[in-house]
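FAQ
Q: What does a multi-component entry look like?
A: The components come first, one per line:
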Amino acid sequence: MEQNQMDELRIIMVGTSGVGKTSLLAAMHEEFNKTFKQANLEIWPEETRTSMAIDECKLTLKNIDPRLKKSVAPSIPLERPWDDEGFLFGIGSGDKKFIKLRFTDPSGEYFKPGAKPEYKQYVEKQLNDCDAVIIPVDATALMETKTGKVKGTEIGTWHEEINEPDRITALLKNAYENLQHPRLVILAPVKCESYMRNPRDANDLLDRVKMGYRELLEFFKQESLIKNLAVVVTPVQTIGNVQFAYHQVNEDGKTRFYYHKTPINAPYAPRYGEQPLRYVLRFLLNVFAENKKKSLEQQQENLAILERDLGQKKEELETAEKQLERQKEKFEQRQEMWWLFRSIANIFDDRESAFYEAKYEYNNIEGEVQDTSKDVRENQAQVEATQAQIDAFNSAIFTFALDCKRDDGFAILQGAARWLPIPKN
Ligand SMILES: Nc1nc2c(ncn2[C@@H]2O[C@H](COP(=O)(O)OP(=O)(O)OP(=O)(O)O)[C@@H](O)[C@H]2O)c(=O)[nH]1
Ligand SMILES: [Mg+2]
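Then the predicted structure of the entire assembly, as tokens:
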């Protein structure tokens, strides 16, 4: 999490070309307004290349033909990948923005083994720095074989080819080797309408995800990682009302899946797009609240020191005031004396300097008391503001977390207690 003028939390979509990164982000985006409103949070989206691509993707999916022949435009690999601002928006309440969220949706080209060095470096750095990673999983590739739906302990015939789990595992092993910060990994089956019809099918899909990413999930469970990693599975129907029909090997030797809408004129109705969003926010807000708690403790400590300091200075001021009173009285007494006696007395006992010294000392301490009082007020305001932020976040997390699904294909595989707790509201 970047500690600049406003904290920024970063999420990256990870997966090979055509697996469904942009479509998933589009399905999540479709739920944004409703989900944030529900949690009494405002969002301030910024117009970027990615936000326009998301709108275009939604348009394509909203008007997609009954046989899904038309497809979403592949995301364009940029000459300089870091020019990609991603999809950026501020979150806050009232008119106060608390944090920024940045979703990055790279082109699948970047993840290819033969990708250009600058793409490889980009992916490596992003995976190192991003707080959360979302991995769309092509459910058809995971669940279908040449002879129909998987049975027993089978994994889909095209899982390796299309989802490239080994490639993804290698990238994350590399990025999380010496993981020092909390991270969330979401495995999100997409194009999964045909496998989410009833809880039994949905849980079967979940089991296949665990089998299809066994090596990755075992890596996540190792000692050095387990305390910093939360892992979740959230199947998202990125179009809705779609049925897998059949597969066909095309001239290029590549297998293509064919689908149709059910009913044939069904509208664009993505389902559960808000679930990965809810888990991302539940995680990030917990991480954020935890960091805020640390800075709150620090602020409270500073405030306690300042208050102690102010107490001391006030005591010193009282002493200086008494001293000033005393010197003033003595000086005034001296002033009332007959001038000759006064001049002689002043030679042995200069009450005027003593008085002005006491006055100077008093003014000095009074200035310090005013400065420290100001510091105390400012720190108190900061402590209250941070506490208010934490409270706002906790209630937002609470609202988000309430509707996080944990059954029928959805699951928290790791880090539930540590990074996805539901705060007491
Ligand atoms: N059957 C089916 N196809 C879908 C669904 N959602 C998206 N698609 C299709 O999946 C294909 C890939 O989707 P994208 O979201 O562009 O995939 P991507 O990972 O962003 O691909 P790149 O940008 O090239 O890396 C497109 O042809 C979409 O039309 C769905 O729910 N069901
Ligand atoms: Mg894309």
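Q: Is there any commentary attached?
A: Sometimes. For this entry: The radius of gyration is 32 Å.
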